[in-house]
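ok so for the tutorial part 2 we go from a plain amino acid sequence to predicted structure tokens. step 1 is just haveing the sequence, like this:
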Amino acid sequence: MPKVFAAGDKQFSSYWEDLFARDPFQHPLYSQRLDHGNRQQAPQYQDRSFLVVHDDEPIFGCSLTLHAGGDGRRHLGYFGLDAVTHVNRHSMLPAINNFRPDAIQALRDYTSDLLATLQPDSVSFLDPVSCGIMSPVSQVLLEQGAKPTIYQAQVLDMRCSSLALQHGLRPSFRSMVSWGLRNLDFSIEENMTQSCGEATAAQSDLAWNRIALLREYDSLLPLDNTFNVQARRGGNLVGSVLCARTDKVCYLIASSCLADTEPMSVLHSMLWQAIEHVKALGCEQFDLGLPVQDTSQEFELGFGGNSSTRLKFHLTA
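step 2 — the prediction. this is what the tokens look like for a chain of 317 residues:
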């Protein structure tokens, strides 16, 4: 019989760590929970994360916070990001190519009850469509009237040779990367010692994509697994890319370029530096994430790789 453990329950932390340990491809931004340090930096957030466990094995997890905005409206998400579900892919039942029906029902029931209890004014949820299966949380939101937006995220297979990755670039992208190698100086800071907020403040001349979100989840960034690629021209900082990684996967978090310095060439070059960096570290995937505000999906497609469907839901009362 599946059991649900909510944040604050005695065994929650150990099961949460177990869930992420079973799948090293989970997004590192969601691996950390709202601990004491986070609460001090973001006291307006209530941790409502939960897990579905069967036979002492975590099956599903959901990263979730509740907070009230300045207008008093209550929002379910995750530190200004979308809430998201996680799965233990090793718990799938091969005979039905799905998870345990009773665990799925437990997740649906708990989500429905939580929404009825909290009655949030809005919900933001990202379904990573793990293992090609729509999350039961998505099904609950659909039943309550949420409308999905479909995105295609590009994921690069870093097990390919460097030559194969280069060939995966569009010819125009290869030209821009070559321009960067000729005209820019790059540096990479691993295991960042300063917080994301301090890093963005130090680069205030750069218009960071998603900067509002970055400030929101500053306390969540796993600094020991975060790195920053910076590009300089003539000694002046002209661009920066922030990534988070585990031993297996790297995620693009944010990017920034000066508008008057060949911005696309700078961005493409920095991303290529990040790709080469994590390949050397042994990462197996590079996830370019969802399209950023000032680029189209064509940007992500230009780096090659495979498309992975993601669903975003927004529900308002």
